[in-house]
Structures are given as C-alpha cells and as structure tokens.
Amino acid sequence: MTPTVRLAALRAQLTTDNLDGFVIPLTDEHMSEYVGGYAQRLGWLTGFGGSAGTAVVLADRAAIFTDGRYTIQVREQVDGTQWAYEPVPQTSPAAWLAKHAPESGRIGYDAWLHTGTWVADATTALAERGATLIPVETNPIDAIWTDRPLPSPAKLTVQPDQFTGASSAEKRAKIADWLSEHNADAVVLTALDSIAWALNIRGGDVDHTPVALSYAIVGADGTTDLFVAPDKLDDTVRQHLGNAVRLHDRTAFAPALAAYAGKRVAADPERAVAAITQALQAGGAKILPLRDPVVLAKAIKNPVEIAGHRAASARDGAALARFLRWVETECVKGGQTELSAAAKLLAFREQTGVLKDTSFDTISATGPHGAIPHYHVTEESSAPIEPGQLYLIDSGGQYSDGTTDVTRVMPIGEPTAEMRDRFTRVLKGHIGIATAVFPDGTMGGQIDAFARRPLWEAGLDFGHGTGHGIGAYLAVHEGPQRIAAPNYPGGAAMEPLRAGMMLSNEPGYYKAGEYGIRIENLILIEPRTIPGADREMLGFETLTFCPIERTLIEPALLTTEERHWVDDYHAKVLAVLTPEMTDAEDRTWLAAQCAPLS
Q: Global pTM?
C-alpha cells in the first residue's frame, strides 16, 4: 500500500471503530526515542523517516507534527496534499485538535503510547470542542498493517561489571534507598535503558540501542520483578540476575499492576505510559509521580564508565579519521554516493573487531541533503558526492565500553568563501561551549547561547539543540541533561549540569538547498579550579578526537585564544589517534591534518 492508500484504510478503520480521529505518536510502550520495527506506526502510515513526530488523522484532514530538525525532511517524505505540516513547539497535537476536532467527536488514542500528562492535556483541549478522548482496545494502525514486523527475538546479554563500574546489586540497593527516602513501596521502571542499566543487561530489540523489551518493578528491599519474554533468557543471564530478580513473561506485566492495592508506587510521569498509571489507579495503588531514579544515576558516569568511553572514543576516532582520509582522496574522483560512503565508514569501524552496532542510522549527506539535520539516506535518496559540495557525516558506534557520536564536514574540492565563513562561525560556537566555565548548578539552557553568538552576529542560527546526553553502551540520546534554548520541549534544557555528565557539543548551520555544517564532539563535565573563586565551578573536557577540516577554517575569523584551542585540540588528536593507526600513510595524513594553523 502507498501512504495515500494507508491513510484511506485508516480512515475506514476509524469509521468501523466508531472514532472521528486518531493520534499516532512515534514511540513505543516505553516512550522510547528509537523504536523497533513493530512500533514504527508513524513511518508506515506517512512515509516520514525521522526519529520524532506525531500525526493526527481526522475524517476530513490530517496533520503531522515535527520540530525544527525535520522542517525540510518532512516535506520531502510526506505528501503535502494529504497532510498539513505543523511545527513543534509552536503548536502541538492537542492545540491542533482544540481547533479542528469535530464538535462532540470521539478522538482515539492508544494508552500504551502516551503519558498520563499528555492524556490530561489532550482531554482538556478536546473539551473546548465538546469532544472526547477515547482509549482504544486495539490500535487501529495494527488492524490495517497486515505485514507489521514482529518484536525482535534477540537474546539478553550480560554487561560485565568491568564496563559498568558497579554491580546490579549495588545499583538496586541505591534504588531501594531512594524508595525509602520517598516512603515508597516500589518503583515501576519502564524506560528500556533504565532497566538495562539497573540490571547490567543489554539486548538487541531496538536498532542501534542495546536494550530489550521489558518492564521492571523494584521493591523497597531491592528485589526486582523483571517482565521479559522467556525465550530471551539463557542460563548465563539467569545466573547473573540471581534470586533477587524474579522473572516473569512480559505479558504478565499489566495484570501484575493490580497487585499493588494500597501500596505507594512511584511511576515517572514522563516515561510511564497512561495505561500503566491507569492500571495502578484501578488496582487501588497510590501513585507517586516521581522521576525514574535511574535517570540521574545513569547520567552521572562513574570512573569506569568514563575510562571506557575514552577507550571507545580513541578507537572510534581512528576509524573515522581513516574514513576522512578516504573521502579526501576518493570522493573528488567521482563515483561515490552517500550510501557507498556510509558503507565505507561502517567497514572502517568493523575493522576494529569490537563494534557491536552503529549508535544511530549514519547521516551521510552531501550538498542539499546536508541542510537536513537528521537526514536519513536510502536507496531512493542516495545522492552522488560531487565536487563543489560539502559532505557531512554524523555517525557513531556502539562498543561494550562506550557509545560514540561525532560529526565532521569535508569539502569535495575547493570550498567557497561563504562555506569557510559559515564553518568557522560554527567552529567558534563549538569552541565557546568547549571552553565554557560555569557555576555548579548551571543549566544547559543558560549556556546554549555560547554556541550561537558567532552565528547570530552574522544574522544566522540553527534550528536544533546544541547538545544531548549520551549513554554508556546505551542510548545515543540520553537525558536528563541537555544544552538547548531554555524553552526546549520537555524542560530538559533547565536540568542542572553536574560533574560526570556527558554531552554532545554540536552547533551547526544549514543553508536550505545548498549545504549543511555541523561540528560535533562529546564532552565530559568536570570540576574546574579557579584561584580566588568563591563558588564551585565546572567546565568541559573534550572526549572525541578526530581532525576538524582545516581547509574549511578561516583563521582570520578566529581570536588568538580560539586559534590556540584548535592547535591544542589537534595536538591531542595526534597524540590519541597515532597509536590507534598502524598504516604509515594514515599516520602521515593525520600529522598533516593536525599541524598548527598557519
């Protein structure tokens, strides 16, 4: 079926289900950012290939909601004659329904795909039209998606303490302490990376993110009920989990919530879907709307996790550097495409011998495609890499000791003066974050402008956040910290920054129809000692090492301090990557790339 036929089929199904509309988010039962194929309902319906979005379908109109990262992409992939493009956060599905839902209409939603907060907001919005929000027993998309993939059968694996720095028993004991502090009997863990972190397990149910479809309930004594498909378990995992982790089929999770009558149960309002809180309430539990205790603990990396990331970053940086040399020498000859380049980079990473997966779909984008921040290359969209273009590569690897995410830009042939100007302004913003010093407790929203000022001075900007958290062999996008404008959706930009957190540093610039620029390294928050300071201060250590394309730098735009930063950074790149590169020609190229700016 084409997207047009699918939309018509959904409308027919809604009529059968006595519904006047339906809301389709891009998520799963765990409020995950990246989801398994079985949960890609939005993409199946609309053709949209981004990683965030929502659609609303009514009988006479339909709308798709995306943020600034996908302004161009959604228009390329989703038929504008069938769908209205709605920008987030300027509007929202609830606000749109308040204007367009039919009077006294019945708008369906899947309670396993929305939070209770969303349900409350949408209910209030629909009340303005006299309309009602209706939970469905069966998702109508599933009723018409005849070839919908099955959930992954991948096995669970153990993440050894040598990579985690703390045993599962230690982590669960801290969760138990947290429950005691809040006078709670249990906490429901629904975020897949929280469960993986707390139990020191990994899985293969979501592309690029080593997690398993599961739920966990941790009790006040630290014992845990894990709900996961039995065929995912082997004796090694069972032995690792031990007697303190009781095992149940994943299908037993919803019925088990009825057993907490009279109990005080913590459930994260941002991560526990409405179906869970509704089941707890129906069973007589007292719900404590508290943030998942794993979220902050997971975000503050311990010394073992930090050391692991450094090792992974050196290994990964060498693979990327070898790739950049290949781009420089081969792509000017012609014959290469976005897909062939992405395959070449994957091959370099695989040559490390320890790559588990890429950490997200590689963004291999040349020319106009580079102006789409989250561009996803396909067989149909893959463009030839040609002289006169900028080629942007945003990619990462999953290794047992760390997760990486890095972006570099290469000119194919001679760059224009404008390209050099814009690239250097992005670099200045990158340096502004990398060198920032700020009081402990500062929020990411307070320093976001450091990355934008050099662009603002030229009347330019970029339409995405400056930095996101990252996991330790877990999700490439990890909260709660973020560097973004203070009004960033969800409030993540107002999370205090703490020592031990890791973030990306990735300002950019995008000229629609021509090129895109982004420079991304990962950074670690660490204490800073300042003589005479009367406050505890923090700063960043750069963790990613790979050359920044020197032919795109306009030295005259850099201050003396910024030039020193570039030279110091490249000296570190040379020191870190040289031992990782065994080929003499690779080393010679690297040395030239890392020479001081002239």
A: 0.94
